[in-house]
Each structure stands twice: as structure tokens, then as C-alpha cells.
Amino acid sequence: MKKASKIIIGILGVSTVTAGVINYKLGEKVKSLEVEISEKKDQNKQIEIKHQDLGKELSRVIDDKVSIENRTKDIERTNQYLIELFNGFNGITYEQLSLIPSNIHGSAFPHNQLHYKLIGELGLPSSQNLWFYETYISSLNFERKVPNWVCQRIEIQDFKEKIADRKHCNFNNNTIQVPHHFKQENKDYWGSGWSKGHMVPAGDNIKSQESMCQTFLLNSNIVPQDLNNNQNFWYRLESFCKNQLINRFKSVTIISGPIYHHPNLIEQLDEDQLKSRPKYSKQTQKKFVKYEVIGDRNVAVPNYLFKIILVEPKDDNNNNKQQQPYLVSSFLIPNEPISSDAVLTDYQVPLHEIEVKTGLQFFKKLNPKTDIQSLCDSDPINCMMMTEKDLLPRLIGFCRSTKDINDLKNEYKHINWGDSLTNLLNSKSLEINQIEELKNQERLLKKQQEEQSKN
Amino acid sequence: MKKASKIIIGILGVSTVTAGVINYKLGEKVKSLEVEISEKKDQNKQIEIKHQDLGKELSRVIDDKVSIENRTKDIERTNQYLIELFNGFNGITYEQLSLIPSNIHGSAFPHNQLHYKLIGELGLPSSQNLWFYETYISSLNFERKVPNWVCQRIEIQDFKEKIADRKHCNFNNNTIQVPHHFKQENKDYWGSGWSKGHMVPAGDNIKSQESMCQTFLLNSNIVPQDLNNNQNFWYRLESFCKNQLINRFKSVTIISGPIYHHPNLIEQLDEDQLKSRPKYSKQTQKKFVKYEVIGDRNVAVPNYLFKIILVEPKDDNNNNKQQQPYLVSSFLIPNEPISSDAVLTDYQVPLHEIEVKTGLQFFKKLNPKTDIQSLCDSDPINCMMMTEKDLLPRLIGFCRSTKDINDLKNEYKHINWGDSLTNLLNSKSLEINQIEELKNQERLLKKQQEEQSKN
């Protein structure tokens, strides 16, 4: 192996230059590498590694740096544009956004495996005002003051340990990404008759108090929902996902949201309207979209809710996981009381229908022909929700007075309650009696004290 | 200056190593730089420039490369996310998006000075489904099948030369970024009584046929608009911007779009509704948002249109341009016929009101306290639109029959037409007479030919 070395030192103009050239042999050829250190007057010290008559292989170090720099500039330019998009959030700058503690406030950026998986494997339904929380992603609608959609993924290990409790969470609008004048407020719901409906269920987040409380954020996860629907059919649907599907499948991805489109709101024009039609109008009827808005902030009440469920089959024994398609079914549920004997498939619709009504695009990364099959059609058991009887323990838990107990008994008198449910109801009844008794005693005591103080 | 050089050649395991260390003096200190070239068996040749006991200054080259690489990775990750966002467009990949010829189809990316200025100086109203055309930016609403907003900027030189002509453009939905099932179609308007209302006026694009035709794209720039409103008040407003404001100001930025919020749609609950109210409801009336939808695609008809005008003062003689604030005024216009004696300020509203009703945020990059003043309040002449009389030449141009001429005369009989307008009307009348005469002759001729052929 040939070896050579040479050091050149010179003073060029105002620069002090120290440089070395190394000649060496690679294969049959002699190559040289020049290193130059210059210290210009009135400037910072500079170092350059130059290549001189080098073969392709040897100039890689230098070229790498140059090409990395170019690449950095290119993607930085596109990135500047991204930053601009994010400035959509309440005027917060990119730098400020990246400093937000995501465990408390969520973040404008994807920051955990769940986010990357949902983005990378499935694709997101839209890009409007995205916000990333520990266990879900939300797209916020600033006009309607509710989420456009929320997307979550649950697996069996999410329910192994119950750490979080609802009683430590409150509905609140501490959503820093939402400008003040676009915020829902708790008082918008007062007296409206609408309940605050979780899109991502609080109960899917028992393993972390922080992530449970992130489901109580008004603009990110809450829409005005019919109370009966919320506590009955919607609750059964949520339970179906977390009690049944996660046992049968590796993971369950759920996208939920409001729908404002109203397919059947058609009004016939009356005689006056027919006469005053504009030129060229041949309409005798008109179609409308109409939805209620509540409170000072005009929070939009959805006409329907949608839930799209995508499950990932468990790896089979032969490790053929790649060939197993995802299973998907989608449901369109009126935002009104739903009969307790309704079943899930009563509300099944094609995914396409929800897309047209919402303007969202679901699972863009999947090929609908090869990657997806129907969840409900593949095996009927996949879409069998819990019955109204299974729902009773929760409804008993909701009772707050003897009247509530009697109402419930009355409403479900067609059901054979059996010993277990009857015992549960009786013990709840006893509990309520005791509380009511205590309150009565308190009231009596107060009255006596008042009378004594008068005397 | 001290100088030193050392070459090490060795065979380490399976590797052939050629390395040089250069010692040199910078200031008072002796430094060394090690260069190592290794050629591992069964692998590609590798070069490493190592630093060994180097001062901070000298290790910069190496550190630079490492830090650039890290930075590249960081912004690439964020960038991947951006790419995902863009996949929202019709499943088109980032690579495909960047290959679209923007002069024909527009682009998902900002690509000219106008775009960078609007983004950088003012900020965009929202980030939903953005698309960049030669002379405007549009945000598309896939649910309502219309734009959320369009933003354009006009200057006096845009009207120096008339190259483009409307007759070479057609309304079309050749908007590749819009998935098929979210597209408006021309036939959605047929017989609906609604006209196709340009948000960016075609007439603001006379200097390029391509950019004029880009204003005829249905989902990007067209909403269902009342025909009278479109041809009269809205036209006067557009003319006011392009004939008056651009003469007085350096540039005129205009944001236009539809509004669906309906502030006054309040319905009292009747007795039955009061009885069937859900628990906890104390409402005796309900507020609603309601809007018409037309055609198979349910294109949403706005209840109002908004136009926000921001002007940039001309540089003054003292070059104090930086201290001059932008002037802004915003207008909320019912989507219905508007009286021909209405003036612009009748429809002026605070910017804030349009934000609350649309969920958009205007001019996020500007400080409303220091950067913006009111256009209309700063000088009344700034908001004086052309009168109905100024409008007559255009209305005469719209006439297609003797009946149209007579209708127009009748509608504007309260106005003193004067010689110039009367002459214009007479010559139009003559033109129509000649055309009608020709058509009559044609019809007669055809009839005669038919009779001859029968014989």
C-alpha cells in the first residue's frame, strides 16, 4: 500500500490557512483528501474539508453534507408552510406550540405510537384543526363549536387496571388551541335539554387519569346529545366495543362524530312562494339542512351521530397476519331516544354514505377492495350488542330518588329481572331510602333549631 | 506556526484502514484533526472524518453534519405529517401532488409571490383543504361542496392589458383535488333558481386566460347565489374594488365566502313540543341554522355572503410606509335581491362577527390594535360604491330581448337617464331588433323550405 503525506501552510491575503493533503490508495488508484483550516480576520474561525480530484466514493462525506443541507432547506420550506397552517390555532406560533406539555393540553403534533399508527396505517378523515391527545385525535370545527370527528384505538390491555375515576374529571373548555370566541361553555347546555355527549368514552380511559380527563374537553370531544340516546343506545354501543370486540380482535379503532345533513327535510312551496320564485326556477319543493344551536355560543346540535368501527384481526398461528383484511362497519344513529330493543345493525349504513354527509374521507391509506371487509357480514356475532337487560345495572346506578327507582321498574316491567338484578335494585333502593331519611332528619333538625333561635 | 503530520496505516481485522492526523496551531493552542478512510470487506467503501481532542471551533465541521442530520430528521418527521395532511386530497400522494401542473390545475402548495405574501404577511383564515391558484387561494368544504373562503389580491397593473375573455371559459368541476362524491355539478343548479356566483370575480383576471378560467371552477370558487344579488349589488361591490380602491391604494386584498349561520331563525315551541321536552329542558323556543341544498349533490346555498376588504396604503413620499396601517372593512350581505339604492356601509359589520359565524380567523399575522384601521371610517370616500346609475351600462348589456329592454326602462324610470345612457339603450335596442328580425326571416325561410319540400 502506497502512502504519502503533505502539509501546506500559507498566508493568503488576510487569511491564515492551515491545510493538509492526504494521499492514499484505494484498490488500484491513488486518491487525495485535502483538509483546510482557515482563520479569517474579523470573522469566526472556519473549517472546510475539501475534496480535490477525489473519486466518487471518497467525496461522499463532503457531498453528503451538501446534499443534506439542500434537503434540509427544501423540506424546511414546505415545513414553513406547515407552521403557517398551525398558526391557525389561536395565533400560537410553531415554537410555542412545540412547548405545550402534551400530557396536559394535548398537542398540535402527533407525539406517540398511537398517532403515528393511525396516520400511517389508516390515514386521517380530514385535516381541519387537528389536535392530538394521549388516547385520541380530534378535528375541531370552529364554526359549529364541536369536533368534526374523533379517532381512538382500544386494545384489551387498556382495561387491565383501573387507575382513573370520572369523579376527578370535570367538563371544561381549557382547550388552549381554541380561540375564545369559538369555545363551547358549560352554560350553553343549561336548560337546553341536551346532554354533553362524549365522542371518545371516558370509560375507555381507565388506565390514566390524565387521558380520561382529556375526554371531558368541550370543543374537542363533546357534542350536544339526546340524554336517553346517550345513556342507552350509545352506551350499549360503546360497551359493545370495549367489552366484546376487544376480546375478539387485536385492536379496535373507532371514529365518532356529529352529522348535520338532514336528508328528509323537504318543504313544498306554497302558492305565494311559487309566484315569487326567481327567474329560471322550476322548483315546486326545496331541500334543507336544519339543525338546532344552543347557548350564547350557538353550539350546533347534530341531527345524527356516526360511529365507524374498524377491527384488526388477531395474528393467526401461521403468522399470516398480512393477508387478513381489516373488518369495518359504520353506523348512523339519530340524535334522539332510541328504543331499548333496537339492535346495532338497524343503524348500519355504507361508509360512503357517511362520507357524503360529512365531507370526510375514511381510511384513505387502505384499499377498500383488498384491505377491508364488513365487520357485521363476516360473522353476525361481531355486531351483536348487549341487550337492554345487560344495560340495567348501569341504569340502576343512575337512580337518584325513590321516584327514579319506580320509574325504572315501570319502564322495564316487561323484562324478567331475575334474582341478581332484583337484589341490585333493592340494595340501591335501600341506599336511596337511607339518604332520603338522613336528609329528612337534617331538615327536621334545622327547623327545630330555627324555631329554638326564634324563641 | 507549528506544523506536524502523521500517517497511520494498519490492518485491523477485516478492514483496510488509511488515516491521517493533522496537528496545527490556532491562536496559542495546538489542535489535531484525524481523517480516516476504511474499506471493509464485502461492504461499500466508507469514509469518516473524525475529530479527536479537538477544540469546539474545529469540531464544527463534524458537528454541523451531525446536527444537520438530526435537524433533517426532526423536520422530516413533521413533514411526513404534512404529507399525510395533503393526502386528504382525493388520495393523491405527496409526490403526485408536487407533479401537478399548477398553471392548469392549481396546486396543493403555495408556488408564487402572491401566495407567500398572503401567507406570510396576513395569515390564512383556515387550513381546511387549501388549494393554490394563480391569482387566488381557496379553502374547500367537502361537506357543503362549496369553498369556505377565497382570498385574492389585486393591484392597478392587473388591469393594464385585457388578454382574457370570459367566452373562452366554462363553469366546470375539473378540480382534481376534489373526490368525485364531493363535487358540485353544473346540473345541480338547473332549474334551482340559483345562479353560479363567482367568489373571485372573473373580471379581476383579464391579464391571463388561464387564471380567468381558474375562477370558473365549481367547488373552488362558485356558490349558489341569488341572480339579482349577483348581477347588481355584488357586481357593484366588485366594481368598487377594481375601479376605485385599486387607484387609491397600493394593493387590495379581498376575502369572500358563504355564511350559513342564521341569527334570527327562532321557533316558539307549541304545546305538544313543550310537553314532550326532555328532562331538564326549560326552553320555550329553539334557535336553528337552516339552509337550502340543491341538486343531487346537495350543494349548500348560503344564507349570507361575506366580503372582507383589506387595502395597503401607497408608499408616501417620506418612505414612512412601515408606519401606515392596513385599512380593513368587512361586509355581510344577505343572499337575496338587494335594493338598487343600497350603499355598501348598510352591510358593514365588525370582522369579529364574521369570524364567529364562520369559524374563520382573519389576518392572524396582524395586530388588530396597531396594524389595522377601518377602511370606511378613515375616509368616507373609501366606501362609496358606484350608484345604480353607474350600473346601468352593464344591465343594458344583459338585455337579450325587446321585453328585457322594456322591463329595464320600466324598472329604472325614476332615474334621469341622460343622453349617454339613452343612446346606449337605443343602440342595444337596435341591435336586438336586428337580431330578432334576422331570426324571424330565418324562421320564415325554414317554413317556406319545409312547405316546398312537402310539395
Automatic annotation (TrEMBL), chains A, B:
Binding site for Mg(2+): N230
One Gene Ontology CC term in the entry: mitochondrial inner membrane
CDD domains xrefs: NUC (cd00091)
Record keyword Transferase present: no
KW Coiled coil (keyword) present: yes
Keywords of this entry: Coiled coil, Metal-binding
Coiled coil (UniProt feature): 30-57, 421-455
Molecular function GO labels: metal ion binding; nucleic acid binding; RNA endonuclease activity; single-stranded DNA endodeoxyribonuclease activity
Residues annotated as domain DNA/RNA non-specific endonuclease/pyrophosphatase/phosphodiesterase: 132-369
Domain ENPP1-3/EXOG-like endonuclease/phosphodiesterase: 133-369
Alphabetical GO biological process terms: apoptotic DNA fragmentation
Active site: H198 (proton acceptor)
One family name in Pfam for this protein: Endonuclease_NS
InterPro entries on file: DNA/RNA_non-sp_Endonuclease_sf, Endo_G_ENPP1-like_dom, ENPP1-3/EXOG-like_nuc-like, His-Me_finger_sf, Non-specific_endonuclease
Similarity field: Belongs to the DNA/RNA non-specific endonuclease family.
Listed name of the protein: Endonuclease G, mitochondrial
Source organism of the structure: Dictyostelium discoideum
